[in-house]
Amino acid sequence: MTNADLPLTPDILLRGYAQGVFPMAEGRDTPEIFWVDPADRGIMPLDGFHISRSLARRMRRGGYDVTLNQCFEDVVKGCAARSETWINAQIFDLYQKLHHRGQAHSLEVWIDGTLAGGVYGVSIGAAFFGESMFSRQTDGSKLALAHLVDHLRRCGFDLFDTQFITDHLSSLGAIEIPRREYHVLLNAALKRDAQITGFPVGDKPQEVLHRMTQTS
Known about the structure:
With 216 residues, the protein is α+β, with helices and mostly antiparallel strands. Helix content is 38%, strand content 25%.
């Protein structure tokens, strides 16, 4: 973990991602921002997302909608709305700017017209850097991740960087790889182009489930 000596801008932020580091703050009220470069990196293999029986049943039941980039700001606010967060005001502002430039994206899950969960991150080339996710209803974040993995695959992405591993992510198929291996995957993904808006995300949950179980 190293201190970000220069004032961060969207361009500097993107250069950091391309070099394999990402920014964090110690807390929402802490102005200092640090670059983080983990020795072991969390990734979600796009062909290895684990759909449990309970998640599969939830997807088959339907009753929810999925959108892309419909309320980016609300998703980031949802991710920051916890007792401890690394999202301070400057980080919040930076990702808003990246979103307006078309380089940061959110995927939202809606139940009965209410935002039930979501995930956001940054895309460069064929790499997607997942930043954070949240859930306001049961399985909200799991549904968001399932649909995001399916969407990234359809759009031609090669790398889904989760930064760290949590028990939650591990249960869904995320793994840790050494920094050197991560950089090999990152450099390859940056040489390719993928457009996260290349496909709609409004497919029926049963269709998404079928695609993922056929290839996972």
